[in-house]
């Protein structure tokens, strides 16, 4: 712990404790938007795995993969990634190779993450892999596990998984209870590693980053460059204040956010947004984000449930929507999304999925407030499907429909808002509307240079696209002038 404090001191940080919240990370100098507060390599990490997708264990790439001939479980894109991973994988490969075929199939990413955790601890204790102040097992030991808050069912699952880890490792002295507790630590502390466009690639444990607490109105953002976790300030963080990131999707009513935090992270948020729960403007906000639209199509009022329970009344014009009618549409939406949409999406049938999502969108437009999150999410799915199908013009139309909702639900500097401007700009440019593309790409750069920095391949590509679009726009302008 002292080592950690002195390592953090050099980075202008300190670990402290707050009542009810436990450990927290404080800034010991002012930080400004776009500045890197802290970065960390994972203690251990694993790529995602699904029936349709395999990734390199070293860099998470999906192409040119070869299976490790030893264990037949792990994949690499080439000898560079295989070599860099070898000290740890040599041990993992050995234990995985001893498993029979059926057992090997049950080695999920979470199981592998745990096996790697123990192997890395062993290698560090034997000094085969060096330890540092921010890279050692004691930091994992210090993470919260919330064991007393976990339900029986979850405990049984963790015990089963722990048992499998014990079978794989074959270490007689290993403690099943400790492994189960570590699974619980993973659940509340591990991070989903994403690419620059926030698509999930894998899972990693970053024990120092895990000290950073949550806020639904955070002053910092966590992004990944390859496997490195980078925390950047998105607001001015005055000396002495706590560094805060968001653990969840912050677009949602206070009730929805609180439920997500309780379910996965087992705590009740008391951030400035959450303390407003139940106050009039909070009730209004949830009625807009998750409630119904007014019967009068031209009215943008929000609806609240009538005291007699028979319907929802518009707070702007007083019109009442009948409970039965609302229930009917909601049931239709639910049936479509659960049965059909997910089926077509999982089989990769874009055209069919498009048809279903358009039906859902039509119903939701009738049902939900124009700023509804679920309507925005449906349109987001339609946008992705249309891009997949290369229907660019329609994709752009949907992208533009989602933007006002993004602007409403996210702060001005938020990676998802920046990325949405980026998509918009790319589509506009592709469709020949260079002037608009320059505007959208500029907005994207304004946000993403703060959240993502300017050094990654992704950002360099975006900055170059903006330069090219600008050059083309001014060329078009000058040829018009002549
Ligand atoms: Zn690789
Ligand atoms: Zn292997
Ligand atoms: Zn909150
Ligand atoms: Zn109304």
From TrEMBL:
Residue span(s) of domain MYND-type: 56-93
Domain (SET): residue spans on this chain: 11-248
Q: Which UniProt keywords apply?
A: Metal-binding, Methyltransferase, Transferase, Zinc, Zinc-finger
Asked whether the keyword Zinc-finger is assigned, the reply is: yes
Give one GO term, molecular function aspect. Answer: zinc ion binding
| A single Gene Ontology CC term | nucleus
Alphabetically, which GO biological process terms does the record hold? methylation
Q: What is this protein called?
A: Histone-lysine N-methyltransferase ASHR1
Question: What is the protein's species of origin?
Answer: Senna tora
């Amino acid at each position: 712990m002292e080592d950690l404090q002195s390592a953090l001191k050099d980075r202008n940080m300190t670990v402290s404790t707050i009542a009810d919240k436990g450990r927290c990370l404080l800034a010991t100098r002012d930080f400004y938007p776009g500045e890197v507060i802290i970065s960390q390599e994972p203690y251990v990490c694993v790529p995602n795995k699904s029936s349709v997708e395999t990734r390199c264990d070293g860099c998470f790439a999906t192409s040119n993969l070869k299976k490790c001939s030893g264990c037949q479980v792990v994949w690499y894109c080439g000898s560079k990634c295989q070599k860099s991973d070898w000290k740890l994988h040599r041990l993992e490969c050995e234990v995985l190779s001893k498993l029979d075929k059926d057992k090997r199939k049950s080695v999920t990413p979470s199981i592998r993450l745990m096996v790697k955790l123990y192997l890395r601890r062993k290698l560090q204790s034997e000094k085969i892999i060096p330890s540092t102040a921010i890279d050692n097992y004691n930091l994992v030991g210090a993470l919260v596990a919330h064991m007393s808050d976990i339900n029986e069912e979850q405990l049984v699952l963790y015990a089963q998984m722990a048992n499998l880890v014990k079978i794989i490792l074959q270490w007689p002295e290993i403690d099943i209870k400790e492994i189960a507790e570590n699974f619980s630590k993973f659940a509340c502390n591990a991070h989903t590693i994403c690419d620059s466009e926030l698509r999930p690639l894998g899972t990693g444990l970053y024990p120092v980053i895990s000290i950073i607490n949550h806020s639904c109105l955070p002053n910092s953002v966590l992004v990944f460059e390859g496997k490195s976790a980078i925390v950047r300030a998105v607001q001015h963080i005055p000396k002495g204040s706590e560094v805060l990131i968001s653990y969840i999707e912050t677009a949602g009513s206070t009730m929805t956010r609180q439920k997500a935090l309780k379910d996965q992270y087992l705590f009740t948020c008391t951030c400035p947004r959450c303390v407003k729960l139940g106050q009039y403007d909070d009730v209004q906000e949830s009625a807009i984000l998750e409630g119904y639209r007014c019967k009068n199509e031209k009215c943008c009022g929000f609806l609240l449930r009538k005291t007699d329970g028979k319907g929802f009344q518009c707070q702007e014009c007083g019109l009442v929507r009948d409970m039965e009618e609302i229930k009917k549409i909601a049931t239709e939406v639910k049936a479509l999304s659960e049965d059909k949409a997910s089926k077509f999406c999982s089989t990769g049938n874009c055209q069919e999925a498009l048809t279903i999502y358009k039906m859902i969108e039509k119903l939701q437009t009738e049902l939900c407030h124009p700023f509804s999150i679920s309507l925005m999410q449906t349109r987001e799915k339609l946008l992705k499907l249309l891009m997949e199908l290369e229907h660019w013009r329609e994709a752009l139309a949907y992208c533009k429909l989602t933007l006002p909702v993004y602007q409403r639900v996210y702060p001005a500097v938020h990676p998802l808002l920046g990325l949405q401007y980026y998509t918009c700009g790319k589509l506009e440019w592709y469709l020949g509307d260079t002037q608009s593309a320059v505007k959208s790409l500029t907005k994207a750069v304004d946000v993403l240079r703060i959240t993502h920095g300017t050094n990654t391949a992704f950002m360099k590509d975006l900055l170059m696209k903006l330069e090219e679009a600008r050059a083309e726009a001014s060329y078009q302008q000058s040829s018009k002038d002549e």
